[in-house]
Amino acid sequence: MCAYLHAPEKPDEVLAALAAPSTRIVSMTITEGGYHIDEMTGLFRLDAPAIRQDLADPHHPRSFFGYVVEGLARRRDAGGKGFTVLSCDNLRHNGDVTRKAILSFAEARDAGLARWIAEHVTFPNAMVDRITPSMDDAAKQRLNQASGLEDDLPLIAETFTQWVVEDRFATGRPRFEAVGAQLVDDVIPYENLKLRILNASHVLLAFMGLLSGYETIDEALADDALRGVVTRFLDDYVLTDIEAPAGVDAASYKKTALERFSNGAMGDQNVRVGGDGASKIQVFWTETMRRRLKKNLPIDLLAFGAASWLEALKGKGENGKTFQPFEPSLSENDWARIRSDKFSDAFELSAFDGWRDVGDQIFFDKLVFYREVLRKKGFRAALSLL
């Protein structure tokens, strides 16, 4: 980093930097929720307050999208070239999502500008992978004591890191591969590998860990029974039916994932990993569930995982340990379905929408069965049935 400009304090300088011909890549990390994509419609939310404000006064932007589109408008008006907009957020198809957001904003502002951006700007997809646990006061104090610093926002991160980038840049790029990035023609196979192996098993382990009363992922994985379920899920449900990218061995990837989960120095919380399960289940489990239902293969491990998630939303483990579930996407009606003593009510949750069309009754029966056993006999009794 050789310079820093804070847009609210120096908006003109930021816009000048975006418009400068020397600027060729604009990278972004604005969190998954920062893209203003409506989860129900899949459309960019032009009604978001910051977006409405920028459309009303496009030359004095406040949002990321307003700044980028105004910068591109100035480049076009000066007869210049576009640049690359590179998302670094942990979001599936992040380049495609960014393109939709930018073009939707630009279209609402100026249809001609939107056409110019579509022709002169590229939006590579990229996959980032590095586990970074959330911090509590105890972890913050431990890190500051070790470093001798007084850091208000310290971070823990694992040694593993992976950055896979679609090699599609409008006006060239640095040699990212020289520092370990993988430049590829298609990021999607790498995303699928991560989602179906790493992310899918991560949340499954977290749900079971919460019900077992474990605080961290490594504690849950150290439990032979839980490790056995996760290993069976990966071996029998995923590795038998996954297309790995060329040159990548899926079995080795699985082994590395489990090694990462076992890292006790991370102290990665089951509450964090299992949080927002309503969204994660739909994203991480859908492809595996659909494939198995279409082939009439057993789905017990995932149905048990879904039932474990629902029971964990009570906020209490089998040993009496309490925790605060984090589910930002659930509505009051959703919570009513979850709390209902009629276990089938939870079947209507959107978390399970991804496979309703290929085997809803099979999943329905399994979900209700495992919820009944969990509620009446407890987690370990249900686990013994798998």
TrEMBL record:
Domain Mannitol dehydrogenase N-terminal intervals: 9-177
State the PROSITE patterns in the record.
MANNITOL_DHGENASE
Q: Mannitol dehydrogenase C-terminal domain: which residues? A: 186-341
- Which keywords annotate this record? NAD, Oxidoreductase
Top-rank taxon of the source lineage equals: Bacteria
What is the name attached to this protein's record?
Mannitol dehydrogenase
